[in-house]
Amino acid sequence: MLPKSRLPNDGGEELPRELIELGKRISQLPQSLQGDLDTYYTQVVDSVRRRRRILALVQDALSQLRLDIKYLMFDLEVTRKERDALRERLEGGATEA
Predict the structure, then answer these.
(1) What is the pLDDT along the chain (97 residues), one digit of tens a residue?
(2) What does the alpha-carbon distance between residue 88 and residue 97 come to, in Å, rounded to a whole number?
(3) What is the residue-wise DSSP string for the chain?
(4) Spans of all domains in the chain
(5) Is residue 28 a contact partner of residue 21, using CB atoms and an 8 Å limit?
(6) Burial of 6 (0-12, 13-18, 19+ CB in 10 A)
(7) CB 22, CB 41: distance < 8 Å
(8) Is-above-0.70 flag for pTM?
């Protein structure tokens, strides 16, 4: 029986084609040769999946950061406009007095 991590799409994540092919070739080896290779293969698959999850988290964080920066830039522009309008009102009021 193949280990759970050897299935190509068991977590909804696609593994690299070469890694799937390696898993198929390992499963075709005699049982006596599969032992150590199976362990190492599972470790590599887990590592690939972990890296993909980390990459997805980093991409999500960058997307959120970009959105936050857009909001901050908008807020800064509005604040500058409010400041300039207030200055004009204050300078206009000082001229009238």
Answers:
(1) 344 444 444 445 689 999 999 999 999 999 988 888 999 999 999 999 999 999 999 999 999 999 999 999 999 999 999 999 999 999 987 665 5
(2) 14
(3) ---GGGSTTTTS-PPPHHHHHHHHHHHHS-HHHHHHHHHHHHHHHHHHHHHHHHHHHHHHHHHHHHHHHHHHHHHHHHHHHHHHHHHHHHHHHHHH-
(4) 14-96
(5) no
(6) buried
(7) yes
(8) no
